[in-house]
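[retry 2/3] Long-chain fatty acid protein, putative: previous attempt timed out, resubmitting with same input.
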Amino acid sequence: MRNYITSTAALCLAAGGAHAGGIDRSGQSIAVLFEEGRYLEFSATSVSPDLTGESINPGLPNGNGSGDIAENYFRFGAAYKADINDTWSYAIIYDEPYGAETNYADGSGYFAQTSNANFTSRALTGLLQYNAGSGFSVYGGLRLQSAEADADVIFSNVFGPALNYTADADVHYGIGYVAGAAYERPDIALRVSLTYNSEIHHDVDTVEVLSGGAVTRETSTNFSTPQSLNLEFQTGVAQDTLMFGGVRWVDWSDFALDPSLYVDTVGQPLLSYEEDVITYTLGIGHRINENWSVAGSIGYEENTGNLFTNLGPADGQESISLAAIYSQGKYEITAGVRYIRIGDTTTAVQGNPAAEFNNNDVVAFGVKVGYRF
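[retry 2/3] Long-chain fatty acid protein, putative: success.
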């Protein structure tokens, strides 16, 4: 029963984390710690965003469209968990916690046509868990994370002088930490966990070029991926039926990707957010028989109404997820689909409203394969 509980709580996340607040992609789950015995899993998610906007600046024809600016992408993950003895356990987790891919197509007449930007990260986390008895446990560990970015930003002259800017940032590795505590009561299928993820600082060597080489600057871009807090719970509500959910807070208001030449020229960061993001999830899982389980969940992030940069136009979301598990012997296969409606978003250039991105959505498909030794 416990294996079913742990898998069902993570089941809808097989396609989860896709296009969450800010550039959050994985949700940084530590659920693998609660698997029984030795356990290995691999996961893959295919994400297809549809993100289009229209200019609202009086310097351009109203309704001049951006085209679909969001690239499809794949996200991979892996985790291994084992018990050292009755008291101590450990886990190793690989994920791709943050990412963004934006590409404004040429030929649209849009003020930012041919602009593009990419931000990628990868993380390896090692966790050690101490089971204190009476259902209580504490855990913690270190996270090694890489980050790299590049951008080509081309704006027409409706906001002042035309801008032709590129930035290329080398990969950089930073270290952070994870700490948390959990309480479990297997007799009622209850588990509550609270996990803190520290910010991770990056100091990235960056080459910035303005106006085709008229100005070149080699410098360091300092930024930190944000600290976050995950509260997750699950509890039995009927025979073979489980309610699960969580609240994730991410300190996005303290994040800014701000290469110095870009800030000096445009007067704003390349990518930043005005407010923190809180994501709520609630779901129900049901075991049909010893081989099959199903689940569904809903998710919500508030639409803030703030102005966003043109490289990250996504303000809030509503989502629904459906998934199924097939278990046979030591193997377990999870498949899920998630539909996300992105909140209506207004972008800005130099503090001036530039475009509206309305009625956009994302579809994500995920598969996870687990094996118990």
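[retry 2/3] Long-chain fatty acid protein, putative: The mean pLDDT is 89.
[retry 2/3] clearing retry counter.
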